[in-house]
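User: Please fill in residues for this 182-position structure.
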């Protein structure tokens, strides 16, 4: 609960500090606001510090941020859930990753930014939930309603003991996405 309150407080301070020149607070209230929703399937390779790299699968919903928009580019909120299961370690990750996104070409964009998450780790019959922080980058290409994407991110988790030989669940993830724009 303390972590959640601290994150809310930091978000409020950051929003107040950034909402200066050109920043829009609550763009969702603007008449011309478009959420620009994209729903994607994710496949990739996760490399946890306690196990070998292996397949990661999941889903992601992305949309223009409801709370804050910068004077240039757009903040895309990317919410995802995914799973890794290999060599006795199973990780289920829920993530919220805001990406400051810039249009490179009409249908090509690149975004980068931090994120927060929650990871449920299971190993040797033990289970542990851990808060996480991550940083990553995305590349998206639109072909009409079709969205193709590539992403990379590093995630650090609490250094909690999951089971003997498994402490924490820090990992890197390289993923490909295919989805639909609504």
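Assistant: Residues filled in for all 182 positions:
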């Amino acid at each position: 609960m303390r972590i959640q309150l601290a994150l809310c407080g930091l978000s409020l301070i950051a929003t107040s500090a950034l909402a200066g020149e050109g920043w829009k607070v609550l763009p969702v209230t603007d008449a011309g606001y478009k959420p620009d929703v994209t729903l994607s399937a994710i496949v990739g390779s996760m490399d946890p510090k306690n196990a070998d790299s292996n397949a990661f699968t999941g889903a992601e919903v992305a949309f223009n941020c409801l709370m804050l928009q910068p004077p240039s580019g757009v903040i895309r909120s990317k919410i995802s859930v995914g799973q890794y299961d290999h060599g006795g370690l199973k990780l289920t990750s829920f993530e919220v990753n805001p990406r400051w996104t810039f249009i490179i070409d009409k249908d090509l964009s690149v975004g980068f930014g931090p994120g927060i998450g929650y990871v449920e780790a299971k190993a040797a019959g033990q289970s542990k939930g851990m808060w996480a922080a991550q940083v990553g980058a995305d590349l998206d290409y639109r072909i009409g309603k079709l969205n193709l994407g590539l992403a990379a991110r590093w995630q650090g988790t609490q250094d909690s003991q999951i089971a003997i030989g498994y402490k924490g669940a820090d990992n890197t993830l390289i993923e490909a996405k295919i989805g639909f724009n609504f």
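For context: The chain is about 10% helix and 65% strand.
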